[in-house]
Amino acid sequence: MSNQVWLSQLLQNRAIAVIRAPKMVWGEKMASSVADGGMHLIEITWNSDRAADLISQLRTQLPHCLIGTGTLFNVQQLQDAIAAGSQFLFTPHTDPEMIKAAVAKDVPIIPGALTPTEIVTAWTQGASCVKVFPVQSVGGTSYIQSLQAPLGHIPLIPTGGVTLQNAKDFLQVGAVAVGLSGELFPKKWVLEENWRAIALQAKNLIRTLN
To answer: Which Gene3D superfamilies does the record cross-reference, listed alphabetically (predicted)?
Structure first.
């Protein structure tokens, strides 16, 4: 998938559901629930239970969604994720070799960065977008806004502190999209297997962002 197509998907959907599943069966239900709520960008973290199998299954089960992965730490994991069918790749850090490997396979890669130097480094190395993480620790929306004047040409996806209440604020100050995890999947609901509540949570988020 080209970066242009990836960016168009981000601009259409604006929010990524980040799933860290301790059980594969829960991961499948979590993904199906947010998809039912209208979310089409779903990230399965690589430290989820049987992440590769889950990604492969969701590619078939949710053909209208883009299924990617995150929490990738090295080139081997990245290559395994691509082999499993991941359509986009998130990392918590910036690794030039991982970016190079993703670019060679034409799979969008969104490395994690925090400072302006890290963000620019990731972008110049070939990142499709840059994940600003953990954004809340450095000021949240005000930090993203302050980056716009010098770095407005770089598409930023803040994570780590994005909530249902402030997600739209991040978009309004310049973020191309946001990533949410715990906010969409409260531990209590997952343990109770309250998938309907999670679907409604996703639906409310999408309504807020439109």
So the answer is: Aldolase class I
